[in-house]
Automatic annotation (TrEMBL):
GO BP term (any one): monocarboxylic acid metabolic process
NCBIfam families: PHB_DH, PRK12429.1
One Gene Ontology molecular-function label: 3-hydroxybutyrate dehydrogenase activity
Highest taxon in the source lineage: Bacteria
Family that this chain belongs to: Belongs to the short-chain dehydrogenases/reductases (SDR) family.
InterPro entries: 3-OHbutyrate_DH, NAD(P)-bd_dom_sf, Sc_DH/Rdtase_CS, SDR, SDR_fam
Organism: Phaeovulum veldkampii DSM 11550
Protein name: 3-hydroxybutyrate dehydrogenase
Entry-linked Pfam families: adh_short_C2
Length: 257
């Protein structure tokens, strides 16, 4: 499997899941555009390091995914988009009647509306090139719900719906659109939470992971960013040409419950 000659844009990709996906796409030979809302020397250094490691072109383009114009400008500035991975996301936890309006607006904008804007901007170029892959990083919360996460759950359910609509609109073209629904993923952000959870619950690291953090994940194991990246690469492969408009759960059995 090679993605040489393809350009992949991954939103929210200077850390965590997005970076893991970008690495696997680069490993498969794709040129990659990294993105986040910052514009620091380390962001561009990260792109240079990936380029050197995998022998592909990697650029970093700043764009604020809460801003529709920025989302569309990201696609235009990249100058080409064969693979679009909509990954950018934030979270806020609060009861519905206490959920800050500004937090609701931000979660919906970054987790849902950004994917609408980037996809709308990318489809014409995919059609012109005669090939395209849109992969939306949804969540187990795109298929089920948890209390106190109303904006996140609403946005991720919306991403699943958007995925199906785009797939139907491109069904007779060489373009596919699918969503990946991860459960809990071991990212640096999650890793950093473990020591505090150990103190709070008076538990060992293993017990915190199994009994607290992964309570709803039957495998009692985190998914990894490499696994998610591998799933994205698979969806870009010839084996996945007839996979469109669906969700792939990488959740250790969470949504089987």
């Amino acid at each position: 499997m090679t993605l040489q000659g393809k350009t992949a844009i991954v939103t929210g990709s200077n850390s965590g899941i997005g970076l893991g996906v970008a690495r696997e796409l680069a490993r498969a030979g794709a040129d990659v555009v990294l993105n986040s809302f910052t514009d620091r020397p380390e962001d561009h250094a990260l792109a240079a390091a990936l380029a050197a490691e995998f022998g592909v072109q990697v650029r970093y383009i700043r764009a604020d995914m809460s801003n529709g114009a920025d989302c569309r400008a990201l696609i235009e500035t990249a100058g080409g988009c064969d693979i679009l991975v909509n990954n950018a996301g934030i979270q806020h936890v609060a009861p519905v009647d206490q959920f800050p309006v500004e937090k609701w607006d931000a979660v919906i904008a970054i987790n849902l509306s950004s994917a609408f804007h980037t996809t709308a901007a990318a489809l014409p170029a995919m059609r012109a090139r005669g090939w395209g892959r849109v992969v939306n990083i949804a969540s187990a919360h795109g298929l089920t719900a948890s209390p106190f996460k109303s904006a996140y759950v609403a946005a991720k359910h919306g991403i699943v719906g958007l995925t199906k609509t785009v797939a139907l609109e491109t069904a007779e073209e060489p373009i596919t659109c699918n969503a990946i629904c991860p459960g809990y993923v071991l990212t640096p952000l999650v890793e950093a939470q473990i020591p505090d959870q150990m103190k709070t619950h008076g538990m060992s690291r293993e017990d915190v992971i199994r009994k607290v953090m992964l309570e709803r994940q039957p495998s009692r194991q985190f998914a990894t960013v490499e696994q998610l990246g591998g799933t994205v690469v698979f969806l870009c492969s010839p084996a996945a040409e007839q996979i469109t408009g669906t969700t792939i759960s990488v959740d250790g059995g969470w949504t089987a419950l």
